[in-house]
Each structure stands twice: as C-alpha cells, then as structure tokens.
Specification:
Blueprint (H helix, E strand, L loop, with lengths): L1 E4 L3 E19 L5 E20 L4 E5 L14 H11 L7 E6 L10 H16 L6 H9 L14 E4 L4 E4 L8 E6 L6 H10 L4 H4 L7 H7 L4 H7 L1 H13 L11 E3 L6 E5 L2 H13 L3 E6 L5
Parallel strand pairs: 4-5
Antiparallel strand pairs: 1-2, 2-3, 3-5, 3-6, 6-7, 8-10, 8-11, 9-10
Helix pairs in contact: 1-2, 4-7, 7-8
Bound molecules: adenosine-5'-triphosphate.
C-alpha cells in the first residue's frame, strides 16, 4: 500500500501478518514442516521509505529498530533488493528507511513483510511489470514467509507456506488487537520443542484436506510448545482471556498466539471494543495496538 509518493521519496506500509490459525504437520526430509494456516494482514505495520541515492543505505528507526540484530547486508529488505539485482533488474542505489513498528521476533512477520513490500514497491516505482507468480518465486528466495506477505487480504498458506490462495473466510474478522509479552522469540527453539512431542492424531490427517472452518477452529499448533518454553506467553494469553468478553465472536476461539509467537492477538467486530481492550492490555504493562484487517471482500 503506497501511502505517499513524490517524484523522489516513496513511502509504503508493510502490514503486520497475523496467523488466525496455524496447523503444523510432518517434518519433511529437507527439515521444513508441512503447514496450513489462515493469515490476515493489518493496516498497522512498518513504514518503509525509498529514495534513489548514490549508494545503498539502510536507516532503522522506531521503537523496535534496536532489536534487529542482523547486519545491514543481511537485512531482509536488502536481501530483497539484491535478489532482484541478481536477476538482472537494473535497480539503482537506494536509501531505505525502515520505521520499525512491528515487534521483532514477534510472530507478526515483520521482516518478511518488509521484504515483500520492497518487492511490490520496486515493481511499482521502476515499472518492472512483474507478475504475481514471478514475484512469489523470487520472494521465496528471500524467505519461506515472504511470498504470503505479498498479499493484502485473507489467505491460506499450505505446503511449507509457499502455496498461497486468497480466501474470504466465512467468519471474517474485522478488528484485531495485537499484543506482545515484551521479549524476542526464537522460531527454531519453538519448532524443536514441537518436534519432541508425537504429532497429535488429528494432525496425521493430510493438512491438504482441512477446510477453512476446520483450520480456523484448530488453533495454533505452536502455542503449547511455545508456552512450555516461555511461560510468559501463557501469562499474557490468560490476561487477555480474562479481559476479553467471551461473547465477542461466538464459535471462533478469538484469543490466540500468532505464528511461532511470542505475539498474541484478540479478534473483535467492533472498533470501540477493540480500542478499549487494547488500553486494558497496555494498562497491564504489555505492548499492544488496535488495528483493522485489510480485505477486498
Ligand atoms: P515470523 O512471524 O515470519 O516467524 P517474526 O515476526 O517472528 O517472523 P521478524 O520480526 O521477521 O520475526 O524477525 C526475525 C529475524 O529477522 C530477527 O532475527 C531479525 O534480526 C531479522 N531481520 C532481518 N531483517 C529484518 C527486518 N527488516 N525487520 C525485522 N527483522 C529483520
């Protein structure tokens, strides 16, 4: 989503990614897990600014910028730019600013969304005319979660996350409060803990055959292992559940962890209720934002 564009400076929002549900299946021979997930994207996100310059420069701003530990050359944004150049696209040196609003390592796909937004931005600014499927292929070279972040609508992710389909979920949520227990989560550690337990029998059924309703009802397979290693996530979820009025979204468990954590979320139909809930979570000492899902339906 372009939010402003002069002839020189272009500003985009890289939305936060929320896994409304996430089922993890078998580990494949290559070490990746089969998965199936319903994902939504929010109006809240990082602000990316691009400007043609004499040399590549990356500037990190925002409250979470100091949590990005990767060197500039390995930042997912720079990797996206280099990937396009390696495919012989003539991208001039760029001065990029990331205003990091999405908690780093928070299961909200911040880095992947930044990279995906750079692909969309460069396609737009330099009239590259890249098709969606070309962008998806090239995005996968930067990370397994980058292709899904090219979307601005509810989608299903299958395979290892590379097979993405836009959907209109039957119980489409409108508003969401994103929260974070104020620490950085290691995705690998959570998967290692997940692998210690035998797969629940329900997950032995091929994830390919799960309907959207079954996926939404199924929750997040990583919640249990994540809470086991980081009990703070369990405390945050209990705090959220205690503050959440249970009649908000009947039939859909509406307080969950996103991705591999540590970020969690609560769904709402009403903006004012979402805002009130957000203030209560902030009052309990957590980072929280109230925002809206992006949807074209
Ligand atoms: P996911 O939900 O896809 O599992 P996440 O939200 O848990 O992702 P990120 O915030 O994307 O995790 O960060 C993961 C790692 O990527 C961190 O170690 C961070 O240093 C690195 N990283 C590289 N580039 C970026 C970027 N542009 N923004 C955030 N993190 C980045």
């Amino acid at each position: 989503m372009t939010i402003s564009s002069s002839s020189k400076i272009h500003t985009y929002i890289a939305p936060a990614k929320v896994n409304l549900s996430l089922q993890i299946g078998n580990k494949r021979a290559d070490g990746y897990h089969e998965l199936a997930s319903i994902v939504g994207f929010t109006e809240f996100g990082d602000y990316l600014t691009l400007e043609i310059s004499n040399a590549d420069q990356l500037r990190l701003l925002g409250m979470f910028s100091t949590n990005i530990t990767t060197p500039t050359s390995k930042n997912l944004v720079m990797r996206a730019i280099h990937t396009l150049r390696n495919h012989n696209f003539d991208i001039p040196p760029l001065k990029i600013t990331i205003d990091k609003q999405i908690p780093v390592g928070g299961g909200l796909g911040g880095g992947s969304s930044d990279a995906a937004t750079i692909f969309l931005a460069l396609n737009d600014i330099f009239d590259l005319n890249l098709t969606k499927s070309y962008l998806e292929n090239i995005a996968l070279q930067v990370g397994a979660d980058v292709p899904v972040c090219l979307n601005r609508d509810f989608v299903t992710m299958r395979g290892i996350g590379e097979r993405v389909t836009v959907i209109s979920p039957s119980a489409k949520p409108k508003y969401v409060v994103l929260t974070n227990p104020n620490f950085i989560m290691s995705t690998n550690t959570v998967f290692e803990e997940f692998d210690k337990e035998p797969l629940e029998s329900i997950l032995k059924r091929p994830l390919e055959n799960w309907s959207i309703e079954q996926l939404l009802a199924g929750g997040n397979s990583l919640e249990k292992p994540a809470i086991k290693i980081y009990p703070q996530i369990g405390i945050l979820l209990s705090t959220m559940k205690a503050l959440y009025s249970s009649n908000e979204r009947e039939g859909l468990s509406s307080v969950r962890m996103s991705g591999s954590g540590a970020g969690c979320f609560a769904l709402f139909d009403d903006a004012e209720k979402a805002n009130m809930f957000c203030r209560k979570i902030q009052g309990a000492g957590y980072w929280a934002v109230s925002t809206k899902f992006i949807s074209n339906f």
